[in-house]
Amino acid sequence: MAEEKLPSRKDDYAEWYNQLVIKSEMADYAPVRGCMVVRPYGWALWENIQQALDKRFKATGHVNAAFPLLIPKSFLEKEKEHVEGFSPELAIVTIGGGEVLEEPLIVRPTSETVIGYMYAKWIKSYRDLPILINQWGNVVRWELRTKLFLRTLEFYWQEGHTAHASSDEAQEETLRMLDVYADFAITEAAVPVIKGIKTENEKFAGAVQSTTIEAMMGDTRALQSGTSHFLGQNFAKAFNIQYLDMNNTLQYCWTTSWGLSTRFIGAIVMTHGDDQGLILPPRLAPIQLVIIPIYKNDSERSSVMEVVEKLKTELSDIRIKIDDRTEVTPGFKFNDWEMRGVPLRMEVGPKDVEKKSVALSRRDRPGREGKSFVPQSNIGETVKTMLADIQDSLLVKATTFRDDNIYDPKNYEEMKEILSNGWAYSWWCGKESCEIRVKEDTKATTRCIPLDQEEGSGTCIVCGEKAKKKVYFARSY
């Protein structure tokens, strides 16, 4: 229910987000600190995200499987960089069935190790390659500072894990899946993302190279929204994943991993939401159209509901909700569904029945600007066209906002000023010391070296030395 107004984004963005996630019934706090309960409305959005991604994974030859939640501790210790990267976040099981375990078990923070162990059993020959497997599941990372969807102890995601016969093939897979994520984000979620490479300092623990899609939220902070990693032969050597090549010579495989999680729900909330609440992209919205019948008595109700049922039948391929609650006013319903971000609202009252029309209100255009009266005839095409236009408009608006808040500062002092409320796109020498200085001075980090890197060279924005790459710097979630 939407009794109270949300805080404005300008006054308190963090509290706006927290209250919106709760009030829109996307999620709630669990009894374990840092964990969340994803409520049906939030889970319906996640299911639509899953379907959009799963379709893309299968189209590129991947299949789904399931691997265990518990991993022997010794597995993580086989890949030194991996265990060092994850050790502060591990949840460890030491007692099972009332007995102290011989070997502690890790509640998986990610599954490279256990999947590497299985791949070593399954792969014998070049004929067994490539292996292209994805799993949908949950993982646990013991985060100290948590925020619903964006960073929780337990979260839901998909993680792809592949093994290949050559480095080139594995690197091609890494970029292919990054393209899949970018296409999903832009096409389905209307979230404009920048594809790029993570710096050595920011890459995944155990990877040779990490690639990422980075999005700008409504407060100009960055959100890492999906990652794809080229693991080289690091995990193959740690877990002895080998195959006999065509010359009958034993070779180590080349592996990748890639993942996108429920944190992307947070990306959708913060990219499109406004002071009234959520604005969900039609392609992913659990409810694309809410129909609100308006009447004063039983006679009006009968004629209005007859039309509503007819419209529902004609719109059968749209995700619809008919709000026929009698205990609340139409005005309350308008505000309630506006807060929940339903892309399109249809009102049907006695006058609409008489005129054979309906009132449509677009969520992306508040007030009178987004309201129109359309004929009931050909309503299916009218609604589909409007939903498509809302989807396109959300992407345009988010892209414009992002581009308007990315700057190319002239010097380090200007950069520090920009990073308080925007992104800097600047030349960087590649030294970790310059990254650390920026983080200490501004709390901003390198987000990515964009794949569509411009040619040329410049001087590092931090130290003034020669630089061959430009990188995005921003404060992030």
Features:
single chain; Rossmann fold; Translation Initiation Factor IF3; 5-stranded mixed β-sheet; 25 strands
State the name of the first-level CATH class of the largest domain: Alpha Beta
Helix content: 25-40%
Largest sheet: 11 strands, mixed
User: CATH homologous superfamily name of the largest domain?
Assistant: Bira Bifunctional Protein, Domain 2
What does this structure look like?
By secondary structure, the protein is of the alpha+beta class. The protein has 3 domains: 13-272, BirA Bifunctional Protein, domain 2, CATH 3.30.930; 289-386, Rossmann fold, CATH 3.40.50; 406-474, Translation Initiation Factor IF3 (2-Layer Sandwich), CATH 3.30.110.30. It is 35% helix and 28% strand. The chain is built from 14 helices and 25 strands. The strands form 6 sheets. It has an 11-stranded mixed sheet, with helices on both faces. Strands 16-15-17-18-19 form a 5-stranded mixed sheet, with helices on both faces. The chain has a 3-stranded antiparallel sheet with strand order 4-6-5. It is globular, with a radius of gyration of 25 Å.
Provide a concise account of the structure shown.
The protein is an alpha+beta fold.
Could you outline the blueprint of secondary structure elements for this entry?
Blueprint: H1 13-23, E1 27-29, E2 36-38, H2 40-59, E3 63-64, E4 70-72, H3 73-77, H4 80-86, E5 91-96, E6 99-107, H5 112-122, E7 131-140, E8 154-164, H6 167-187, E9 193-197, E10 209-216, E11 222-232, H7 234-239, E12 242-244, E13 250-252, E14 254-261, H8 263-272, E15 289-293, H9 298-314, E16 320-322, H10 330-339, E17 344-348, H11 350-355, E18 357-362, E19 371-375, H12 379-404, E20 406-407, H13 412-418, E21 423-428, H14 432-442, E22 445-450, E23 458-459, E24 466-467, E25 469-474
Parallel strand pairs: 3-7, 15-16, 15-17, 20-21
Antiparallel strand pairs: 1-2, 4-6, 5-6, 7-8, 8-14, 9-10, 9-22, 10-11, 11-14, 12-13, 17-18, 18-19, 21-25, 22-25, 23-24
Helix pairs in contact: 2-6
